[in-house]
Amino acid sequence: MIIDGKQVAADVRADVAKKVSELKSKGINPCLAVILVGENPASVSYVTGKQKALAEVGMVDRSVHLPESTSEEDLLKLIDELNNDDSVHGILVQLPLPKHINEEKVIMAINPKKDVDGFHPVNVGNLVIGRPAPLPCTPHGIIVLLEKAGVKTSGAHAVVIGRSNIVGKPVSLLLARKETNCTVTMCHTGTKNMAEIVKQADIIIAAAGRPNTVTADMVKEGAVVIDVGVNRIPDETKKNGFRLVGDVDFDAIKDKASFITPVPGGVGPMTIAMLMQNTLEAASND
Questions:
Q1: Which of 15, 47, 107, 236 is most exposed by smallest CB count within 10 Å?
Q2: For the residues of 2-61, what is the DSSP string, one character each?
Q3: How far is CA 216 from CA 96, 111, 255, 266, in A?
Q4: pTM, full prediction
Q5: Is 7 assigned a catalytic role?
Q6: How many angstroms separate the CA atoms of 82 and 86, rounded?
Q7: What is the pLDDT of residues 21-43, one digit of tens each?
Q8: Of 55, 56, 35, which Cα lies nearest the Cα of 44?
Q9: Catalytic: which of 19, 50, 113, 169?
Q10: How far apart are the first and last CA of the chain?
């Protein structure tokens, strides 16, 4: 069964829109400030998607598009202003940033209560020890997809491929929480016999950032496969000369897996939906 991330994300956004409307009736206008520095085409596309979602759920859009030449000092000053603006509930700085700006310094500058990306060390620490905190959007979206598909996670062996701070590490922690109750193995570039380990998995989370990292011979019959990868590969049949593929060999695995997410249309739409959810929660906690 193919998990339709677009549909699940649409359901999440519809639920958020309903709750935004309830907050507005109490005089609270949920507001997100997305800061984009420069003209990175992928980043511009992501920010446009976020603005579209904000309009759809009825939130206030305080997006700021700054030139590539913006200094680190000016960006930090803007974040400080937004931190101190009570009408702004969430702040997101679109990564990657231009090379002259220190990303870590920028993430640290955001008030943890307004950190709707869940990247601030305070929120990462809260995630580790199980305290309430904004959860990173993509990992949280993966958990919601598993729930909505009715995947039985308790006691399942989940294998996560990738150890990034954005997906691999946080999704491993979420899968291991009591609510999800998986036994988790994390694989990465230093893992020996990765194929053997992945073949034991009931749930595979592929977040390696490389096409065909997971092939059909690595997947046991009936496994659940969540593909987080978004890779551009050349394709002369397409107008723009490329197509998007994930980290797993979808065509070879789809008949073997009990559930699988497509690329595009699987995990991707969930990221923005969970961002709307985090902004709503930040406004509700205000």
A1: 236
A2: B--HHHHHHHHHHHHHHHHHHHHHTT---EEEEEEES--HHHHHHHHHHHHHHHHHT-EE
A3: 33, 44, 10, 19
A4: 0.94
A5: no
A6: 8
A7: 999 999 999 999 999 999 998 89
A8: 35
A9: 50
A10: 40
- Per the annotation, the verdict on 50 as an active-site residue is yes
Tokens representing residue 180 in the block: 């999800």
Token pair 């019959």 in the structure block, residue: 221
Residues sharing a CB contact under 8 Å with residue 5, sequence separation 6 or more, in sequence order: 141, 145, 261, 262, 265, 266, 267, 268, 269, 270
Q: What is the pLDDT of residues 44-97, one digit of tens each?
A: 999 999 999 999 999 999 999 999 999 999 999 999 999 999 999 999 999 999
Which of the residues 114, 115, 117, 247 is marked catalytic? Answer: 117
- Report whether 47 contacts 18 (CB < 8 A): no
Q: For residue 45, give Cα distances in angstroms to 24, 50, 141, 283.
A: 29, 9, 19, 26
